[in-house]
Amino acid sequence: PDHAPPPIDFKTATELIPRDVPTAVVYFIITPQRGAAIIVSASGMAELVDLIGLNRSRLISLASDWVDAYREPQESHGMFDGRLWTDRAEPILKGLAQQAIQPIIARIDPSIERLIFVSSDHLHIFPMHACHLADGKLLADRYEVVYTPSLSVLRQCSMRERRDPSSILTLTNPTGDLTEIGTSLVDDLFQVRRCINGKKITRDWIFANTREHDVWHYDGHAVFNAGDPLGAALVLESRDLKHSDRWLYLEQIFTALELPDTTLAVLAGCETGMLQSETFHPSSADEFVALSTGFLFAGATCVVASLWIVDDLATGLLMSRFYSNWRRRGMHISASLREAQFWLRGDPRVEDSIRTGMQLRNEVLPDSKLEQVFGPGTDPFFRARMHRDAKIRDAGEGNPPFAQLADWAGFASTGLAFRRNRISHPGVQEADRVREPRPALTRQRVDSEPLSRSQPFRPHKPQPTKEQELAVKAQRQRSRGDLGNALSSLREQETIYRDAGDKAGLQVCLGRQASLCRQMGDLERSLHLHREERRLCEELNDRVALSQCLNNMGVLHKERGELELAIEHFLETERLAVELDDMVVRQGVLGNLGGTYVLRGEFERAMQYLHKQETLCQRLQHKRGLAASLQLQGIAQIPVVLDIHAMEFGELVALLRDAAG
Predict the structure, then answer these.
(1) pTM of the full predicted structure?
(2) What share of the chain is helix, strand, coil (3-state, %, to 5)?
(3) What are the C-alpha distances in Å from 469 to residues 223, 478, 496?
(4) Helix or strand run (H / E) with residue 626
(5) How far apart are alpha carbons 321 and 341 in whole angstroms?
(6) Which of 255, 259, 346, 460 has most Cβ atoms within 10 angstroms of its Cβ?
(7) Closest by Cα among 325, 411, 352 to 145
(8) What DSSP designation does 135 have?
(9) pLDDT digits (tens, 9 = 90+) for 385-410
(10) Phi, psi (rounded to 5 degrees) for 17
(11) C-alpha span between 520 and 218 (Å, rounded)
(12) Exposed, middle or buried by CB within 10 Å (0-12, 13-18, 19+), for 617?
């Protein structure tokens, strides 16, 4: 395999910026102390923008809220609810917009029409194009938005020579349990169209048959494991975990899949760019490692991928419009996607956009259109379901049926999405160009093809060290509930770090062991490990890790009933959080202080800390913290309302705990 692309200098970076429309690159930098963004224009001008409120802790909090908001309704209702997801997602995006987007837009030249985001840390899980600006408009309303894992990857994509796309491969419903959407979207848009569906789509078949196509369209399930990013996969043959060895994993996409002719890969599967909350951890998602990145490394110059579960009907309509824009109207990929999103959500700037449910039923989804969008011979039950969905979405004039974020904002373009394609509709003559003959399609296996310069680059993937393997092993064991073996793996890792004298690695390892011991109920051992972790943090002068360690020690003392020691550690944590300007950690520790004083019966003092926490949570728009604060305030006011003493309150709490048990 080829190595990862080397870093590029500033001059090369500016040369990457397209000049067809005024474009700026926004390069995010997130540190434990603060965030920043570098805005670079094609003229070579660069400007640094401080994102003071967006440090890593704040971003982790937003990302955790985002994933929880996505997963909780599914866990409670057993299915994805787009409206509920929209209601939960928009406030989080509002907080992100205020701290990450609006300060940048205030400094961008008014002539700019396109933004290329180079995301950092956890930012890549958010649809930044759906963030609101200060004037209430969406970022996508003002700018065409493109994402890239890095500028060096973007440069590598730009160096690949690609023909005008003339063939498409569609891989549809490989597990046999989905509506087959999009298989007939492109009948007259490509000279060669190959459609494979159902369980004929296997990993071996993909490796042997997919390298020669210009467009690679996947419509099926996908999973992303944030605890093991290379474990992200396209789900093939069966969703049953017993057959997960048959799936196409990101690691295999990086190392074995070759797409030397592919201009565009469309991943319309569920969550091809989304994190799973079950494995989400602050140490995860450090970089832009997702299925879309893997397809860029495999050779595609651009990827359009879904970030969450998107409704069948919305996906089919969006993809139909997208392909029509790209192939018939000659628009480039990101502009095609943006216009399709405008059209779907009923934006008045698009003349024929879907603005009412009646229009959806009568104009967009008559039977003839259903067959065009979802294939000839559409099942009558499916046709009835589509009409039912259209009727459900008819909320009257002024309420476009697909206006909610869950329907239109779930797709994003990554990579070289702004390279303009020649109009390829059969009715359009291209007199200024002689079409080069296309090489014959072959079925030769990937592993028998010799490497050449025209083939895709690959990241150099060094073998993981023993301690890295143990960390992944422990994470998997813990996620399965196998806590004893997870602890054994971490102890083995601890031995390696001690032998190597690696204090930083040892500090992290001890913190993980302490967390496991607490989960297992061994509070004494957990405290012992945190004490050594604290010593290492002080030696390394890692004040961010130290604040987290002290807070954890305070929680343990609180659980052991050692309230004085708990308060001592919480106060020290708050002091550090103030010094680091870490408002997220501070609001959490203020809540811990309030809760501890409640247990001591010092209700007025508890309310002082809880009011401070409430104020911070409102500033941060931290809903979970705010809810916890208000709940504790309610508890703290019970003795006042009932006019009982602290001792009686303690007895009341004990009775309530017994009743709950």
Answers:
(1) 0.64
(2) 50, 10, 35
(3) 21, 14, 12
(4) helix 623-636
(5) 9
(6) 259
(7) 411
(8) T
(9) 556 566 555 555 667 888 889 899 99
(10) -70, 120
(11) 43
(12) buried
